């Protein structure tokens, strides 16, 4: 006879009151064993009992059986599940009150099973051969297959391409041997086609069956990757022409320069000759339409291996690989003939023409900046000599050098003699329609030439490094103005522009903090504006500077967004607060539906990333209405006010409402 008390017979025989059980596919013998399978006892089940046990599916459940051992009735509760197509395993427990134990065990088990089944992640459990042991509801939804259909089948054969399957199969043994968790991206085959899944994989031991299993938790990132690709494409593509933008062509040129062994190529710098007159006479919409048509026409002229991009404004860059003098001359001739033909824009014939400058690699430069600068110099020489002409860069082109020399001396003199001043353009809150902040813009009143436009000297200042000294003056002057405005009911924040050169200045932070201390600020009243090219030049250094600036109370603005290159992952890494939409998108309102759609999508992305949004270059009521509609926060442009000196801005504030 057997003592049926809970702590007696099972413990004496198996060393535990919850021995393992196993039911093979070809027998009704239920095998009970200890943890090491050294003590095994077989119990004969009736056909009905065996059928009950074999009804267990992939989720853990319980079955109560009444049997006999050594002539004594024995009540057991079997807790377990089907482990593959032809075997069932689990643990057994003794209990007088079978119904109560079954009910309490199922409550606990069903909760964990329900979590696995209902969790929004994909959960798949496989053995070291890749055979499926668990397959939750999210997997069923995505794959179109039920757990019953896939149980015991090989996941690699069901859901992966032959190539992917071989790669994974080769790695499985290594993973099980190393016992390390890992994460990876894999495409799987589903009822809706291939989907990209981010898998988090962990090896877990099932003590019940003494076996290791791979628990795979997955997230479908297909749409996320597609959205990121679209955003990256938008950020690297010029919205007006559909061509690569400035940053994209810079990457292409850098790659060509870095190719070893070096392969010669020619860089053509194209500038439309009559664009300003067309823009002024017919308006920006017509100007953008001309740019789009020119881009399309140029695209049709280039060879399949060459690269064309809109560099900015009315400028295009064309990179000719494997260039020979004959090939370059032929392409320039074709472009000139093309541009001599009128473009029909909205039933109006427009003549433009273009001037072309050519720089050759490596003869005329061995870096991106040198090649672009020399091609630009040659283009200006062509424009000065004869609009519609072509000029090849030569070291004898002194006009540009002379201008550079004048700028070098003039800018240094301007710093010494106080010829610079700051003008301020308000940024208006579209909810209150009052100025919320201002952007500081430098002006140069030369004693020799009078008012020199910023576009005439900023580029040289950046190339020469003088921008660092000019930038220090701007920061100090803006900080002083912020102190003067600190008595306003709500002091205006002032944003200043920083270039890539300034970000590389090791004294930038110390100069900034010294200016704050000089004017008694513990938190900065200034914000900084960076272009996408600044960030792309050295992301790690930029993030370091931005983080230090943020600690001082500075808000970081990403200026001219959409004209450079900012990936979604990059935007999430940067400590940004404000996105400034480039004015080229605003000018397209309301004529260019594609640009408006692109602007709407970029605003939506910026809102999802919790950025404040500023629209630059707002000039008309229709532009204002549209940016309001899509949720832009702030706007600046001639519709509100032109840049003006501080005293005029104060008068403007009194007339239009104090901040």
From TrEMBL:
Q: Which UniProt keywords apply?
A: Hydrolase
| E.C. numbers | 3.1.4.52
Q: Which PROSITE patterns match?
A: EAL (PS50883), GGDEF (PS50887), PAS (PS50112)
Single Gene Ontology MF annotation: cyclic-guanylate-specific phosphodiesterase activity
Residues covered by the PAS domain: 113-179
Residues crossing the lipid bilayer are none
SMART domains under this entry? EAL (SM00052), GGDEF (SM00267), PAS (SM00091)
Q: Which Pfam families match?
A: EAL, GGDEF, PAS_9
The GGDEF domain extends over: 263-395
Domain spans labelled EAL:
404-657
Name this protein carries in UniProt: Cyclic di-GMP phosphodiesterase
Which organism does this record belong to? Answer: Aquitalea aquatica
